[in-house]
Amino acid sequence: MKLSALPFALAVFVLSGGINSTAQTSVRQASGHLRHQSGLHRRVVAADFNNDGIIDVAASAGTSGPSALVVRLGSADGTFAAPLRVAQGEALASGDFNNDGNLDIVARLLPAPDESVLLYGGRGDGTFTPGTLIANYFEDAIVATADFNRDGKLDVVVSAHGEPSTGVEIVLGNGDLTFSSDAAHRTFVPTGSGAHGVATGDFDRNGTTDIVVANRDDRTYSILLNQGGLLFQRIDVAAVEGTPQDVAVADMNRDGRLDVVAVESEPSRAVILVDVQRSAFTVESVHAIGAAGASRVTLGDVNRDGLTDVVTANASTLFVDDCAPGVKGMNTISVLPGRGNGDVDDGSTFALGNQANPDGSKGGMASLQLADVNRDGRLDIVASDGDMFVTTAPDANFAPVVALGPDAALATNSVRLRARVSEPDGDAVSFVWSHTPGLGLPSIATPCVANLAPGSHTFTVAVDDGHGHVATDSVTYTIPGRVRAIPLAPGWSSRDLGAVGAPGRVRFDAATGTFAVTGSGADVWGTADALHFARVAITGDFEFTARVASIENLHRWVKAGLMARESASASSRHGFVVATPRVDRGVTFQRRAVNAGPTVSTAGSIAYAPPVWLKLERRGDTLSAYYRKVTTDGWTAIGTQRYAALAPALDVGLGVSSHIEGTLATARFDHVSLRPLPK
């Protein structure tokens, strides 16, 4: 089996001298418990929107597509009222943009092409005025607020990592909830490639607010020193080893100068940079954070010892290519206690989910913030999708308990193991499996093992809470002497097309009629394709329908859909109605009308993410593509393509391209139907 981790790292950039990089064991660990607030999706912004001195939360009401912006008003006990629809979009940030004492919300409209950044003015009662435009179309926008021109009015900086350029747009506020479009009030500042996380602070101590940006594509940090008049001096600092994801700013070593804490990917570690001569940065020390998937970072005194701690939100999931392939695991948060000298201690990691039910898995972590939600004087942790970790006074740490279930005799030669963990402290546990007679298993709660030999198989798991406690359990399964293999659907076959970096495959479940198609390939685009294709031949007109139940979200352009092509050549003429894993790309109809010619694409009028139904239809020399969200919807046409003398017999089937050369992505199709049409 193949295990593909999604690891991330933490980098601490201290823009001043005098730090101690020696790691020490800390007893200043965070404690608390998980609370989940329903009806909150994607990024969550915590602030007091109705001026009652209690923290409220704002977020999107939906997981994909156009959705309402909702606010849940807080109570003094840390509970929240039912969601109140106040606007449209996804919450990004808050601030008082017209100095009326009421907090406003910066939000992003979805989906593209209407992915604009707007400002909704707060009325002070939890409701908001209609939105005013800040900036147009910023893919996966990251926003920070500050006063960049020292006029006492709040401004906005938005990171932009899409085409045609990458950098940040700085937009000056007029102080009345509006923004001007002229060059005197906004500017685009280029950064390194793939601008993403952004934070602000006065790094050179000249009285103006500077900007730091994490650049994912070229693995750099851009520090933009504010020269006044919307002019910025850019200094790029190379990442230590990995890919920068996010940044935050605080005085980590108490020398009166701001430092930068950043999240890096592969490997997980904290990197400390020192500003030795005002603007010359050098690596000082490295510190592991102890959790994979850290994608957001924020700073504050979580354990109330007077020192700034580092908190990371971790998309701690793995893609495991076993007999039940998919993303597995659970999101987590990590709290690394600060030492006050620019370094941090080993911290605690907490699960954002029920480890007694390990089958659930969430996507990435979109936001992270500290706020005292229950007014007990302690900073609590507000993550994305309604997950909150309410901190408490330090407490004794208790051992976990793990259960694998009863021994059993199986009818097949595969088994999906489930380690159900009871963890009273909420610590995210790690897993180590052993097997008799000796298979290797990945370090997850739910590995799936196939092709077991007949006989007795004992699996043992040890779970470690990271605080000196280890719990174990074992289970024995008996495999019969003969097991039934499930073939691919009758008449179907599969193969890789074009230059793929990893071989694909198809699994067909005859009981449910579900195809699991796994493919690599850089793309289905241009003059040649690279994908895995499960196909069957058909002559004449046809109607081909299926539901794309799920697509592994490795990249926004993972493509999975229904294809008809003339041959197995990578440059063959084809039609391909495509679903993608995210609403920002939705459904498209791609086609190549000439062998080795260009590929053209038409997007659906409404952007849907899976599950979504697709239809590809042939009538004569014309292919037509359609889609719908549910079966009660009518089919919506995307486009048609007429081909010159289209071959009578075509290969029709299910195609998947991961868009990442050498990396496999899996999509699941059900309700697959191919029927000939009368002439």
Keywords:
679 residues; disordered N terminus; 56 strands; single chain
Structural commentary:
This protein has 679 residues and is mainly beta. The protein contains no helices and 56 strands. Strands 41-46-55-48-49-50-51 form a 7-stranded antiparallel sheet, with no helix packed on it. Strand 16 (195-201) and strand 17 form a beta hairpin. The two termini are 47 Å apart. Residues 1-9, 14-27 and 483-487 have low confidence and may be disordered.
Number of strands: 56
Unreliable stretches: 1-9, 14-27, 483-487
Distance linking N and C termini: 47 Å
Global geometry: globular
Q: Which class do the helix and strand fractions yield?
A: mainly beta
The percent range for strand residues is over 45%
The largest beta-sheet arranges its strands as 41-46-55-48-49-50-51
| Separate helix tally | 0
Helix content: under 10%
Topology, element by element:
Layout: E1 2-5, E2 9-14, E3 31-36, E4 41-47, E5 56-60, E6 68-72, E7 84-88, E8 90-95, E9 104-108, E10 117-120, E11 132-135, E12 143-146, E13 155-160, E14 167-171, E15 186-190, E16 195-201, E17 210-215, E18 220-228, E19 231-238, E20 243-250, E21 259-265, E22 270-275, E23 281-287, E24 294-300, E25 309-314, E26 317-321, E27 326-329, E28 332-336, E29 348-351, E30 368-371, E31 380-383, E32 387-392, E33 401-403, E34 408-409, E35 415-416, E36 420-422, E37 430-436, E38 448-449, E39 455-464, E40 470-479, E41 493-497, E42 505-509, E43 514-519, E44 524-525, E45 528-529, E46 531-539, E47 542-551, E48 559-565, E49 574-579, E50 587-592, E51 600-603, E52 612-619, E53 622-628, E54 636-642, E55 649-657, E56 665-676
Parallel strand pairs: 2-22, 34-40
Antiparallel strand pairs: 1-26, 2-21, 3-32, 4-5, 5-6, 6-7, 8-9, 9-10, 10-11, 12-13, 13-14, 14-15, 16-17, 17-18, 18-19, 20-21, 22-23, 24-25, 25-28, 26-27, 28-29, 30-31, 31-32, 33-36, 35-38, 37-39, 39-40, 41-46, 42-43, 43-56, 44-45, 46-55, 47-52, 47-56, 48-49, 48-55, 49-50, 50-51, 52-53, 53-54
